[in-house]
Amino acid sequence: MSESNKDILRTGYEAFNRQDIPAVLGLFDEDIEWTEPEWTYGPSGGTWHGRDAVLHEVFEATPQYFDSFTLEPRELYGEGDTVIVVGSIKLRAKGVSETLDVPFTHVWQLRDGKALRHRGYVNIAQLYERRELRRAA
Fold first, then answer.
1. What does the pLDDT average to over 21-38?
2. Among 8, 53, 67, 135, which is 20 to 30 Å from 27 by CA?
3. Please, where are the H alpha helices in 18-122?
4. Which residues are within 8 A (CB) of 83 and not within 5 positions of it... i.e. 6 or more apart?
5. Distances (CA, A) of 128 to 32, 66, 67, 100
6. How far apart are CA 4 and CA 61, in angstroms?
7. What is the three-class DSSP state of 63?
8. What's the domain count of the chain?
9. What is the pTM of this model?
10. Which tens digits make up the pLDDT trace of 100-109?
11. How far is CA 9 from CA 2, 54, 55, 125, 126, in A?
12. Contacts of 101 (CB under 8 A, 6+ apart)
């Protein structure tokens, strides 16, 4: 099952990077649980429940903070219904000239071809070290 789950997630990351958010949301269970860390240079961290909450609190909020934001999954590991994705976020915060490469790990749980849970981990230390970003915050 994990290979097909990996393929589902690859499709989702590709859709996200083309800004096809309806396609991404279509991969989620209606009651998805989505958790993101708290970080200064992006949308608020927390846990949201349901597609609409993820759409409004995460996907629609992201462009308010970033001029560019793409996800580059590099490694996918799967066991059963759990898939771990390791990659990097290429982002440029508003008011900042430099595009940063920030490592991430996403832990997904899928069932019957739909994402039930997402937990994101981001190496925000790289962001906090940037003087230019500190001025923009």
1. 95
2. 67
3. 21-25, 51-54, 62-65
4. 2, 5, 6, 9, 76, 77, 107, 108, 110
5. 30, 15, 18, 12
6. 30
7. helix
8. 1
9. 0.87
10. 888 999 999 9
11. 10, 16, 17, 26, 26
12. 88, 89, 90
How many other CB atoms sit within 10 Å of the CB of residue 46?
13
- Measure Cα distances from 80 to 27, 96, 129 in Å: 17, 41, 38
Q: Please tell me what DSSP assigns to residue 18.
A: T
Q: Are 43 and 61 contacting, i.e. CB atoms less than 8 angstroms apart?
A: yes
Name the residue range of residue 6's domain. 2-136
The enclosing domain of 49 has a CATH number of 3.10.450.50
Q: Identify residue 59 by its one-letter amino acid code.
A: F
Instruction: Name every residue whose Cβ is closer than 8 Å to that of residue 107 and which is 6 or more positions away in sequence.
Output: 82, 83, 84, 85, 117, 118, 119, 121
Whole-angstrom distance, CA of residue 132 vs CA of residue 91? 14
Rounded Cα–Cα distance for residues 93 and 34 (Å): 22
Q: Cα–Cα distance between 92 and 65 in angstroms, integer?
A: 9
pLDDT at 1 exceeding the cut of 60: no
Residues ≥6 apart with Cβ < 8 Å to 41: 65, 93, 124, 127, 133, 136, 137
